[in-house]
Amino acid sequence: MRPTTTFRRAVEQILKVDTIYPAPKDQFRGTPFHNAGVRSDAAVTAAALLSRRLFETFADAAEQHLPSGIPLRIAGGCGLNCEWNAAWRDFGQFSSVFVPPCPNDSGSAVGTALDALHSLTGSPHVDWNVYSGLSFHHDTEPDPNIWTRHRLEPYALAHALGSGHIVAWVQGRWEIGPRALGARSLLAEPFHERTRDRLNAIKKREDYRPIAPVCRIEDAGAAFGDDFPDPYMLYFRAVGHPELRAVTHVDGSARVQTVSRDAHPPLHELLSAFAELHGLGVLCNTSLNFKGTGFINTMSDLLEFSETHGLDGMVVGDTWYERRRPSPGGPG
After folding, report:
1. According to the 3-state scheme, what is the secondary structure of 72-127?
2. Is the pTM of this model over 0.90?
3. Which of 197, 241, 270, 328 has the most C-beta neighbours closer than 10 Å?
């Protein structure tokens, strides 16, 4: 839906309100998007236009007040805006754009700690990466009456995912940031809208929420039209393959995590097996957590989540636990 003059005036009106807490809905009764619903074409158009106008405001300020050719370093939760990250990268004002691997407001606390470390020791360097969380804790064993235990075989799991299974994926230490990056994930096939709907139901999220894809780096160009690496899921890119309906947002974009063989061997091997069976090494990837809590990190919590939310399988390291009976809402 193309924004009309009426749309543009309404968005400019939003930018002039004193506060959005609480939302001053009465001021917008005559606009095309008033009470239209978040999935309506009008709401989608207005949201996209508002985001663009906000970025333009910051971009204009950057051009006016910052010298051209300096690097841009993005801090805090602002780095979670993948649309703007891509826009800053393409803007041309800066020599480079850096977004931290786990953007959130804890960066200020970490920076303060590193500053203190440098003052005390002369070096600010720490051994750190995005997978610096705790190791998974095997505090119990799955009930063999519910779960069949297999050694993980990527082609067999890829076939199960292709047939509609949704599987918990646990590898190594958990991610310390806000996004699942292949250590505490829910994985599923990427081709059907019903898969997106089932994942959102499992996560107890609104049904319009997009699901992010994880993509083998070798398939990024074919699937998304751009093959630059993005191992930390920091940039939006356009979806270039019409069959990826479960991971395509309403504006045709996706927030992709790319995976290389060296960086994440188990996940890359699974994506490669899925590519051989289905043509693309792409899967749905969303975080493995109870609503409102951090990543699941014990077998007891994983079992509770999987059994109460109807998962079809769990992979922990090189072991695949497959549900013996079809789960509610699952395949079969």
Report:
1. EECCHHHHHCHHHHHHHHHHCCCCCEECCCCCCCHHHHHHHHHHHHHHHHCCCCCC
2. no
3. 270
